[in-house]
Amino acid sequence: MKLKPFGSLCLIKILPEADEVATSTGIIMPATVDQSRTPRMCEVVATGPDVARLPAGTVILIPRDAAAMPLDNIMEDEDDATFALVQPNTIIATIHP
After folding, report:
1. What is the mean pLDDT of residues 76-90?
2. What is the pTM of this model?
3. Which of 1, 30, 71, 81 is the most exposed place for a label (fewest CB within 10 A)?
4. In terms of residue numbers, what domain contains 47?
5. Does residue 63 contact residue 36 with C-beta atoms inside 8 Å?
6. pLDDT for residue 28
7. 61 lies in some domain
8. What pLDDT, on a 0 to 100 scale, did the predictor assign at position 71?
9. Is the previous residue joined to 70 through a cis bond, with omega within 30 degrees of 0?
10. Per the structure, how many domains does the chain have?
11. Which residues, at least 6 apart from 17, have a Cβ–Cβ distance to it below 8 Å?
């Protein structure tokens, strides 16, 4: 799928979530924890021409409901990867290894 966002939109790939997540201190968060209030990790695939300083491949955090704002625009490709278009102002943070 070739998609190039217009204006200030970002095309993101929603990364799959693990069944259990360990925090940096070693606390294991099981899948039964209510994750409705936790942010999602995503990867920037492409950005519109009005988005500066957010290169493709950047790992970001977005609110769990950000992929549905302002449109319900979640898409899937043939590999079952999930993509969405979001506004850059919905991004909470970038993650650097």
Report:
1. 85
2. 0.75
3. 30
4. 39-97
5. no
6. 63
7. yes
8. 47
9. yes
10. 1
11. 35, 40, 41
